[in-house]
Amino acid sequence: MEIKKYLDNLKIEYNCYSHPPVFSCEESEKLSVVKNGMHAKSLLLKSKKLEHYFLIILSCNEKLNIKNLEKIIGERLRFASADELKKNLNLLPGSVSPFGIINEPEKSKGKVQVYFEEKVWTSPILNFHPNKNTETIEISNEEFKKYLNSLKNKVKVFKN
């Protein structure tokens, strides 16, 4: 499903900005894509032994402390492959965001656990790609949490 339609169906307010394709926070900053609020990066990780997937959302300014996250989750982690990203969220590298959760296959809804770094979780305004890297959605924290509440995925907050 297209995320903007999904948000509109839930009567969630947001602003959407079009821009040239960006594949990293650094590229986004150079283009001054984000006008207000926090821009975040999203990473899909997988447990090394089991078929557990974790969508990790961090501030663009943060570097993932994977050892700390492994202690929090209780599993050894690795980055998911492009194929695993496509299979689980129907996304391509460079377009990953928490909005991709709506793309989980019906038979595995809720399989991907979502972890928000505390700074992102508490930011009043958030910015994410709407599942393609040529747009950015600016959304209030309150409206974004309405979106999260519409999903079956477990959401957790952590300190990086």
Describe the structure.
- With 160 residues, the protein is an alpha/beta fold.
- It has a single domain, classed as Alpha-Beta Complex (YbaK protein), CATH 3.90.960.10.
- It is built from 6 helices and 8 strands, in the order H-E-H-E-E-H-E-H-E-H-E-E-H-E.
- Strands 1, 2, 3, 4, 5, 6, 7 and 8 form an 8-stranded mixed beta sheet that branches.
- Strand 2 (38-47) and strand 3 (53-59) form a beta hairpin.
- It is globular and about 40 Å long.
- The termini are far apart.
Short key terms for the protein model shown above:
160 residues, alpha/beta, YbaK protein, eight-stranded mixed beta sheet, 8 strands, 28% strand, globular
Give the strand content.
Answer: 25-35%
Given as residue ranges, the uncertain stretches (5+ residues, pLDDT < 50) are none
Number of helical segments? 6
In the CATH scheme, what's the topology name?
YbaK protein
* Element-by-element helix/strand order: HEHEEHEHEHEEHE
Overall shape: globular
| Chain-averaged pLDDT | 91
Number of domain modules: 1
Q: Tell me about the biggest sheet?
A: 8 strands, mixed
CATH top level class name: Alpha Beta
Helix content: 25-40%
The CATH architecture classification is Alpha-Beta Complex
Terminal CA distance: 32 Å
Count all strands and give the number.
Answer: 8
Query: What is the CATH homology-level superfamily?
Result: YbaK/aminoacyl-tRNA synthetase-associated domain
